[in-house]
Amino acid sequence: MIELRDYQESGISRLRAAIQKFKRAILVSPTGSGKTRMAIRIMQGAAEQGNVVWFIVHRRELCKQTSREFWKAGVSHGMIMSGKGRSTLPVQVGTIGTAANRISKIHPSQRPRVIVFDEAHRSVAPSFQKLIDACPDAYIIGLTATPERSDGKGLGEIYNDMVEVAQMRWLIDQRYLCDYRLVAPTEGPDLTGVRTKAGDYDSRDIEERMDRPTITGDAIAAYRKFANGKRCMVFCATIKHSESTCAQYNAAGIRAEHIDGTHSDTEREDALNRFRRGETLVLCSVQLAIEGLDIPAVEAVQQLRPTKSIIVYLQLIGRGLRMEDGKKELIILDQVNNWKHHGLPDEEREWSLDAKPKGKRKAKDDEPDVNIQQCPKCFSVFRKGPTHCPTCNHPVGGGGREIEHVDGELIELDLETLRKEKRKEQGRAQTIPDMVALGVRRGMSKPHAWAAFTMAARQGRKPTPMEFKEARDAYERIKHPEANTTGAF
Question: What is Dmax (Cα atoms) for the chain?
Answer without folding.
Answer: 78
